[in-house]
Amino acid sequence: MVSYCGLVEAVFKALSDQTRRELLDELFRHDGQTLHALASRFDMTRVAVAKHLRLLEAAGLVVSRRSGREKLHYLNPVPIRLVHDRWVNKYTEGWAAGLADLKRDMEANVEKVFEIYIRTTPEQLWRAITDPDVRARYQFGARVESSWTLGSSYQVTRQGAPRSLIEGENLEVDPPRRLVQSYRAVWDDGIAAEGTSRVTWDSCARPQIHTCTAGGQ
């Protein structure tokens, strides 16, 4: 059973409505929008749009974050991916799809926020992010190496690759709750020329579940 098994019905309910699907389409086209910006694209009141957004947030398909006085809404595809993996992934070439998604996301100048609920402890979650062997299991076999101290460097490498895949600096290190890193993809000269971005890992506790939010810019 996937971690989101308790939210499967909420995901399908959220996706069953055309307006909510169109809201997700809007966030796919331009992530991190305010309620005002989203409501301006629909022939309905802001109150009605806000109600749809609350249902999408309850299903985990939208994540909201405060930025000053504004509340920004982000598309969170993780629940859809988990539903996909439960029933569809056995018939697809998951590795190729994952690599294609990674290339597309890394080459785009966008801000993303992803959130997932994991039944674990903060210490186990921190280990999953920072331990080379554990990290390699869900990052296409790539290993991350670092001393995980403030200001230290880190590298993501893969056996057989002629150079590092990713390099950066640990800008904030607060185990087991928060990790902020600079991020520079360097697996080829073309992508390296795109420059440096930032990735933030946040973990917060809920009853019996920990939320892992990964945001990039």
Can you put this structure into words, describing what you see?
- The protein is of the alpha+beta class and 217 residues long.
- The protein has 2 domains: 5-79, Arc Repressor Mutant, subunit A, CATH 1.10.10; 107-216, START domain (Alpha-D-Glucose-1,6-Bisphosphate, Chain A, domain 4).
- The chain has 9 helices and 9 strands.
- It has helices at residues 8-15, 18-29, 35-39, 46-58, 78-87, 94-107, 122-130, 132-138, 189-192, and strands spanning 62-67, 70-75, 112-118, 143-146, 153-157, 166-174, 178-185, 197-206, 209-216.
- Strands 3-9-8-7-6-5-4 form a 7-stranded antiparallel β-sheet. The chain has a two-stranded antiparallel sheet with strand order 1-2.
- A hairpin with a 2-residue loop joins strand 1 and strand 2.
- The protein is globular and about 55 Å long.
- The chain starts with 7 loop residues before the first helix and ends with a strand.
- The relative contact order is 0.11.
- The model has no long low-confidence stretch (mean pLDDT 84).
Write a compact overview of the structure shown.
With 217 residues, this protein is an alpha+beta fold. It is built from 9 helices and 9 strands.
